[in-house]
Amino acid sequence: MAEAFAIIGLASSVVAFVDFSLKLIAAAKSVRDSIHDTLPQVYEIDLVLQDVHFSNLKAKQMALQDGPLSEAEQHIMTMATECERLEGELRTVIDKLKINPDTRFRAIQSTRLALQKMRREKDIGDLQDRIQRLDERIRTNVQMLLDRKNTSDTLSKLSTLIKSQDDLGIKHDYKLDSIQKDILRLVKSDQAREGQLAALKDHLDSLARESAICRKQYRVIKSLYFDELPRRWSDIASADKFTNDWLFDPTTTSFLTWLESGNGIYWINGKAGSGKSTLIKFAAKHDQTAAALNEWAGPAQLHIASFYFWNQGFDMQKSQIGLFQSLLYQILRRTPELVPHVYSDDRLDHERWEFDDLKKAFESLAMHSGLSTKYCFFIDGLDEYNGEEQDVLSFLSYFADSKVADIKICVSTRPRRMFEPFQQSDNSLIVQNFTEEDMKRHVRVGLQMNVKFKHLPKSDCEELVAEISQQSKGVWLWVYLVTRDLVHAVNHDEGLDTLKKILRQFPPDLDEYFSHIIERIKHVHRVEMAQIFLITLQEVQPLPLFLFSMLDRETHSPNYAVEAPIQPLDAEELSETERVWKARIHNRCSDLLVVGDASHPIFLRYPVDFLHRTVRDFLQDSYYPKLRQLVAPRPDFDPLVSLCRMTLFALKSVPKENFRLKSSLNRVIGLTDELLYYAHEIEKRSTEPDTAPSPVADILDELDRVNCKHASKPGDKHWTHARDLPRTRGYEEYREGGNCNFLALTIQARLTRYVRAKLSANLELLEKKAGRPLLDYALRPRRVTAISMPYHSQREDPRIAISMIRLLLERKANPNQEVHLNDDRTVWALFLLSCYESDMSGEATVAMKKSWYKASALLCQHGADLQPRLDKTNPSFTARQILLKLFGNDQTLQLEDLAAKYREQEAAKEGPWSFLNPKWWLSRK
């Protein structure tokens, strides 16, 4: 697309040349008629021609990148060459019209020039005609580029840019259309009037400039978009007409007052299934909300955005990155002119948005001088955030306590102890306290829509309605389920007595209902039901429907994934399998699992998800032992191992991959990281000793082989280099030097049993590893993932594996080994700096610091030098300072004791003459 706008820039330069040349000829004619007139400075034409040169070169470069040019575009590029020829003739004519100021005989020179002018009159006229023809041609070709009656590539690309903005919902002011119309009006004029060419150049420049602004806005806003962004919102049921209106009644709640004049956080609290998400969706999009917030904002620019956490959904639906990225996307697409305030020009289009980037973008937006803005965010399901509870409070405080912008937030959550102080404020409500009348209305309307219900006595129907709302205890999901059963019974011609019986026998709470549903599933399907539920409980994100068919293959051949060929799925087989398994999921899991109709964010389609989060909670908290009992006849079944097999099969079945494409890379790395996560969970939950072999070793070996195949090209580095390195922050930086390998990646993934087996078979893998030492990967396991794994945010997980560090140290890994890629700092020094940066950034949790201390103790016991060089420019910055900051005085002294004992043990091994060994003196530093 870029070359289209380079051609517009070239057209502008040609118009400027024509304009200047015509003015120069007009001046030459004046000099011809009167020897006393003077000519403009000829050097000015050099500046004009430089623009033509530069624009032509840029257009040629763009054409090489973007393909063949249209006829009009080719003509405009040809005109650049013609400008160069005309410039030479112009210069010759003008030079001959000038009087040499140094001549001693100015009168004679003037007379001679006057005679020459008479002979040059025809040449000047011819030159003028040629430039005017050039003027006509540039106008014609610009018209061909931009007139809708033609089909030029440039017009097509301008239209594509506008359509791209529309596709993302980017609000634009149609400047491109307006400028385009003005240009066409100017080029259709019959003659070049005074100032018209200058106006045409200005408009062409404006078109190129505005196009560049729009392209940048589109790139930035597109980079913020993710497919799952609207999915949760569209999955939430919309409120019935006339329900939830109580929210805006100032005699009932404080919500309207808060919208109009309040600040801080408004808390919407409610039990599971009580309709919190529906209420937030209702509030965020209601006209009365917008009107009240506009009153609050006054003359300031108002931004309203919303986000819906979904714990059982995909990564971006349950993470801080997803939250911030979604909010920023919604703000910028409505006010794209704010893009320059949040985006750095040195950011590459393919780079993922990291949390720090997004936070800085918000800070930049809020602090930009001259912007009068107010923000209101609606955030649903804080209790479904997949991370540290403290993180939730931190980002809420960050927003609500902002000193540089007016921000307020309406949030919803289940009852949680950590939120109690906020929920007891005046700016809060408990949903189930207000919904009884709404439920009656909903049930009444739902029943009356059924023709057969209309034949029942009205008083009996009202009795059913009242009983349903009373028994619901404020849980909308319960109302939906019982109403569905009643409608089903009426459609089968059941009478009023049966309907009352159904209602009164309906389980009073959701857990009992879910248990009841499972008990109704046929016994022949129970084992497969349990397998499916166990897999959905362990998965990182909802699996595509097709992969559940792998359970059949696994039953007959546990090694199916390792033995499967590397080839894309057959479209016909895929479609038929999905048709069969859509019915099977329903037969085995009833309505508790739902097959979606969307594509999967990584691979395939039709993600399988729980009906509601309460289903997952029930299976995990109440029914899990029964599920394990049901799969007891298949003792080899492990849902995590099954997930490893499914993921490997998916990796083998992806379309032909090209690691130079972001989509291909994210697909492969996303599936790879999922598999590594499942493999780690297997080791973490295993009751077998660390020395036992990994049950998925063959799957991991095959994973490496498959990805080597996907990424294979002569001279390419190992496929593990395809992922981005973590971004440098302060002292902490990561460099591979082209020497990463699969063993290093499995160390980062903390697969101790797998690594132990590999090193036991070949210790040289440790000794001969170039670049980063393997111990460095264990101590600094951060890696960029296509999707965030749960272990990145679970509170009990410290991110580093002590068992892995112990394994490598027992295999003689050296904590004092220098890493040349990192300024010759030692592995131990790099670990300390990594801990220091994490602590400085506020990431360090109690669990992380405990693991750091255990790792430090192991390293000191194996000879870690407590005086490593940390910073060449700051020799006073020492390891002891870091240890004191991280662990305090007592634990720092304990580490120093461990290091001293190691030195004494080494000295004892050397004997009485150890002081003659230089190593002894180094150890005493």
UniProtKB/TrEMBL annotation:
Pfam families: DUF7791, NPHP3_N
InterPro entries (UniProt xref): DUF7791 (IPR056693), NPHP3-like_N (IPR056884), P-loop_NTPase (IPR027417)
UniProt superkingdom: Eukaryota
Domain Nephrocystin 3-like N-terminal: from-to ranges: 243-414
Ranges where the DUF7791 domain occurs: 521-656
Keywords attached to this entry: Repeat
Coiled-coil segments: none
Protein name: NACHT domain-containing protein
Organism listed in the record: Lasiosphaeria ovina
Source taxonomy: Eukaryota, Fungi, Dikarya, Ascomycota, Pezizomycotina
